[in-house]
Amino acid sequence: MDSASHLPGLRHSYEGEPLLESGMADDPVTQFALWFADAVAAGLPEPNAVVVATSSAGGRPSARTVLLKGFDERGFVFFTNYESRKGRDLAENPRACLLFPWHPIRRQVRVEGSVTRISREDSAAYFHSRPYGSRIGAWASRQSAVVESRERLDARYRELAERWPEDPPMPDFWGGFRVAPAEVEFWQGQTDRMHDRLRYRLAHGSWVMERLAP
């Protein structure tokens, strides 16, 4: 039997306490910190894994998973090759949507906002904290470009490792992006698909909380 025939019956019933406005923090970054701590405590694999959705100037969307490397009241930070597809998208259309899919604890967080590059100094500080192999990999991989073969990619890595056996510099084409939130939605699964969705929306410099229909 075709495995696709099982799709209509694949579902999971969520149960738990409701997500109420009275239990939420005054701002979304504080609330995110609380939920992120819960995701870590629950032992989720890579709780900082986040789907980043971007769009080109022409409206062509794309999405991929990256790792969140910092967040504060200014926004959510991840690092990448600026010449990758997401880097090119963000140069043309500096807005993004982030999605943290914490399904084992029946939660999701969605962030929408404008995107800017972080400073070269902050990017360099993170780059030099990375393992040596990851730093060489940032040079070896022209992210999103067509590669002739795996062998050629590995050969390029070896060439660069021989060139910089100890401390590779940070590439000019690599660094961090910060997503400054304009909307942050906290989703918690409930029974009968009556899920809780509470959204913080920035309005005239202040956060407004709204409940959305599931």
UniProtKB/TrEMBL annotation:
EC number: 1.4.3.5
InterPro entries: Pyridox_Oxase, Pyridox_Oxase_CS, Pyridox_Oxase_N, Pyridoxamine_oxidase_dimer_C, Split_barrel_FMN-bd
Family matches, as PROSITE patterns: PYRIDOX_OXIDASE
Residues that hold substrate according to the record: K69, Y126, R130, S134, R193, M194, H195
SUPFAM superfamilies reported in the protein's UniProt record: FMN-binding split barrel
Biological role: Catalyzes the oxidation of either pyridoxine 5'-phosphate (PNP) or pyridoxamine 5'-phosphate (PMP) into pyridoxal 5'-phosphate (PLP).
Pfam families linked: PNP_phzG_C (PF10590), PNPOx_N (PF01243)
Species name: Microbispora amethystogenes
Pathway(s) this gene product operates in, as recorded in its UniProt entry: Cofactor metabolism; pyridoxal 5'-phosphate salvage; pyridoxal 5'-phosphate from pyridoxamine 5'-phosphate: step 1/1; Cofactor metabolism; pyridoxal 5'-phosphate salvage; pyridoxal 5'-phosphate from pyridoxine 5'-phosphate: step 1/1
Cofactor-binding details, from the entry: Binds 1 FMN per subunit.
Residues of the Pyridoxamine 5'-phosphate oxidase N-terminal domain: 37-159
Named cofactor requirement(s): FMN
Name of the molecule in the record: Pyridoxine/pyridoxamine 5'-phosphate oxidase
Key words of the record: Flavoprotein, FMN, Oxidoreductase, Pyridoxine biosynthesis
Transmembrane regions listed in the UniProt entry: none
Domain Pyridoxine 5'-phosphate oxidase dimerisation C-terminal: 174-214
Binding site residues for FMN: 64-69, 79-80, 85-86, 108, 143-144, 187, 197
Family: Belongs to the pyridoxamine 5'-phosphate oxidase family.
Catalysed reaction equations from the record: pyridoxamine 5'-phosphate + O2 + H2O = pyridoxal 5'-phosphate + H2O2 + NH4(+); pyridoxine 5'-phosphate + O2 = pyridoxal 5'-phosphate + H2O2
Domain of life: Bacteria
Quaternary data: Homodimer.
Signal sequence region: none
UniProt entry tagged with the keyword Oxidoreductase: yes
